[in-house]
Specification:
425 residues, alpha+beta, 8-stranded mixed β-sheet, 4-stranded antiparallel β-sheet, 16 strands
Length: 425
C-alpha cells in the first residue's frame, strides 16, 4: 500500500513462497501447505513425484516429510540450473536427510560416530570446551555470528521502571562482563552495547553506558538514580517502597541461575531488590501484556532478515502490542486506549513511543539513508527510552563431521544448505 524499504527482504521469507493456483484452495489452518510444497529449486521433498494433484481429496502429504520426525530432500528433476544463479544456489549434495532429535547429546554422539554430518542443536558449554581444546575437533566447530541479541527487558508501565532515570541507572550498573561469563565466555558471543547489529548501522560500537571492561559503573549509575523520583534521600539508591519486591521473571535451567545472580547483585547496588520468580510457563507469562512483570532476563531476538525493521521496527512498535504473543515486553509505544483494552495499568507520566520514527525509517528506500535513520533511532531508544539492557550478541555454534565443506549464511543466520559440499575422500 506504500513504499517499504525492506520489501525485497520480506519476499525471502517462507510465508511469501508461491502456491500453485490449482491447489491453493486445498489448504487452510487445519491443513498446512508444507508437506506438499511444490519445488522450483534444485531439491524437492522426497515422494513429491508420486503425488496426485488432480483434486484436494487425492492430494496427500509427501512421504519424505513428517514435521515431528524427519525431512528428506532429493534432486528436483525439473530444475534447470541454467535459469538460476550459482551464487544463490550451488548445492553439492544429491540428498539431504534431516532428522529431529530432542536430545542434542544423542545427535552429537551420532555425529562423532560418523552417522550424521551436521548438528544445528544447542551445544553445551562442556562440549564447546572439549572441541575448542582438542586440535582434532576444533576445525569441526563452527562459531558464526547470526545477530541474535540477548537482553534484559524492563516494563515501562511497572514501577520503578516507569522512570527513565531508573532505566538508565540499570544500564549503567549492569555487570555485562559477568553476564557474558555466566553464558560461558566470549565463545558464546560478544558483549552487546546497543540494540541493532553493527552490520546494520553506521555507528558500530555505540556504547552510551560504557564502563571499564563492561563491569558496570556504580558511581555513574547512582548519579543517574539521584535524578529519579524514587530516590528520596539523594543517595543514589532507589529507596521508595516500589523498589522492594520488584518482580523479576526468569527460568532456572542452563545458565540462568548464574545469570540471575549477576542481575540481582547489580541492581542491589542501586537499591532495587528483586523478587525472582519462575512461572510454570515463563515465556507465556512475559508475552502476556497484562502480566505484572517488571523485569525479565529471558528475552532474545534474532533478525528474520538483515534489515533493522526486523528488529527495532517489530519489537518497539506500539501497534504490535497484543494481549498474548506480545514480544514488545517493555510495552514501548503503549497508548492509554490500548492499555484500557488490554487491562494494563497505564502510568501517570505515560509511555514513550517511537512509532513515528519507525514509520519514517521504514519508508526510506535508499539503503544508506535507511541505515542512517535506523542508527539514529537505535541511539535514541538506548538513551531516551532505555527499555532494555542489551548484553550479549550471541554466536551460533554448529558442529559438523570432518568431511563437510561448511558455509554459513550470515544474512539468514543459518547454515547455507544451498552451498554445502563434501570433501573428496
Amino acid at each position: 500500500t506504500q513504499p517499504t524499504g525492506d520489501f525485497l527482504d520480506r519476499l525471502t521469507l517462507p510465508a511469501t513462497a508461491p502456491i500453485p493456483r490449482e491447489i491453493a484452495g486445498c489448504f487452510d489452518r487445519s491443513r498446512g501447505y508444507g508437506p506438499n510444497l511444490v519445488a522450483t529449486g534444485p531439491f524437492m521433498i522426497e515422494g513429491s513425484d508420486d503425488l496426485d494433484p488432480t483434486s484436494c481429496d487425492s492430494l496427500t502429504p509427501a512421504a519424505g516429510f513428517d514435521p515431528s520426525k524427519r525431512l528428506s530432500l532429493v534432486r528436483n528433476p525439473d530444475y534447470d540450473p541454467a535459469t538460476d544463479d550459482p551464487g544463490i544456489r550451488d548445492p553439492g549434495f544429491d540428498r539431504y536427510r534431516f532428522s529431529i532429535q530432542e536430545d542434542p547429546n544423542k545427535t552429537l554422539t551420532r555425529l562423532e560416530k560418523g552417522r550424521v554430518d551436521l548438528s544445528t542443536g544447542d551445544v553445551g558449554i562442556d562440549t564447546l570446551r572439549r572441541y575448542v581444546s582438542d586440535p582434532q575437533l576444533r576445525n569441526r566447530l563452527h562459531v558464526e555470528q547470526d545477530d541474535r541479541l540477548w537482553y534484559l527487558a524492563m516494563n515501562l508501565t511497572e514501577p520503578p521502571f516507569d522512570d527513565l532515570h531508573v532505566r538508565r541507572a540499570v544500564n549503567l550498573v549492569m555487570d555485562k562482563d559477568l553476564l557474558q561469563r555466566a553464558w560461558g565466555g566470549a565463545i558464546q558471543g560478544e558483549i552487546a552495547t546497543h540494540i541493532l547489529p553493527d552490520s546494520l548501522v553506521d555507528e558500530p560500537g555505540l556504547d552510551p553506558y560504557a564502563s571499564h571492561h563492561h563491569e558496570g559503573d556504580v558511581a555513574a549509575a547512582r548519579r543517574e538514580m539521584r535524578r529519579s523520583r524514587y530516590d528520596h534521600d539523594d543517595d543514589g539508591r532507589c529507596d521508595a517502597a516500589v523498589c522492594r519486591g520488584v518482580l523479576h521473571v526468569t527460568r532456572t535451567d542452563g545458565q540462568w541461575e548464574s545469570l540471575d545472580d549477576v542481575v540481582t547483585e547489580s541492581l542491589a547496588k542501586i537499591g532495587i531488590e528483586l523478587d525472582t520468580r519462575v512461572p510454570d510457563d515463563p515465556y507465556g507469562y512475559i508475552t502476556t501484556a497484562r502480566s505484572p512483570m517488571a523485569i525479565t532476563s529471558l528475552p532474545s531476538w534474532v533478525k528474520d532478515y538483515p534489515d533493522p525493521f526486523a528488529i527495532l521496527g517489530f519489537l518497539m512498535s506500539g501497534a504490535n502490542i497484543t494481549a498474548t504473543d506480545n514480544y514488545n515486553y517493555s510495552l514501548v509505544g503503549l497508548t492509554k486506549a490500548t492499555a484500557e483494552r488490554l487491562h494494563v495499568a497505564y502510568p501517570r507520566g505515560g509511555v514513550p513511543s517511537v512509532d513515528a520514527e519507525i514509520a519514517r525509517c521504514e519508508s526510506i528506500l535508499v539503503n544508506s539513508d535507511r541505515q542512517t535513520c535506523w542508527s539514529a533511532l537505535d541511539r535514541r531508544v538506548m538513551l531516551d527510552v532505555a527499555p532494555w539492557v542489551p548484553y550479549l550478541s550471541a554466536t551460533r555454534r554448529i558442529i559438523t563431521s570432518d568431511r563437510v565443506e561448511f558455509v554459513f549464511d550470515g544474512a539468514a543466520g543459518e547454515v547455507s544448505f544451498a552451498h554445502l559440499g563434501l570433501r573428496s575422500p
